[in-house]
Amino acid sequence: MKHILIFLGLLCFSAQAQSPELTLNITNIETIKGSIEIGVFNTAHNYLKEGAAYKNYTIEVTKDTETIVIKDLPKGEYAISMYHDENSDDKCNKNFIGIPKEAYGFSNNVVPKFSAPSFEDCKFVFNESQAMAIQLRTF
């Protein structure tokens, strides 16, 4: 009986020690091709700087809504940016003044006005499993 109680105690401890899951539900995908490129940032210092994301994820587009479950993100504060790489060239294509030509989205569904949103605008606290809907937008 003592061994069973120890086993149950260890089982409960390991379940609590697991990282929470972040589920991203991405909507408003207009063309069914390419991939969604996701950057997760953990500081304002490097937010939206190319190659500076804390974590990167890719989803191949197969329908007009996609879902990704992120299981390797520790608890903390984050901001997410993403774009639909329709032509699979591994970059967010922009026009001559720097406005994205491919659909994009941010955590908190922030809609940029005259410039890219800040880390503070897009920041969210991730302490427990949660789902977040992000709608892709075009300019």
Automatic annotation (TrEMBL):
<protein>
    <submittedName>
        <fullName>Uncharacterized conserved protein, DUF2141 family</fullName>
    </submittedName>
</protein>
<dbReference type="Pfam" id="PF09912">
    <property type="entry name" value="DUF2141"/>
</dbReference>
<dbReference type="InterPro" id="IPR018673">
    <property type="entry name" value="DUF2141"/>
</dbReference>
<keyword id="KW-0732">Signal</keyword>
<feature type="signal peptide">
    <location>
        <begin position="1"/>
        <end position="17"/>
    </location>
</feature>
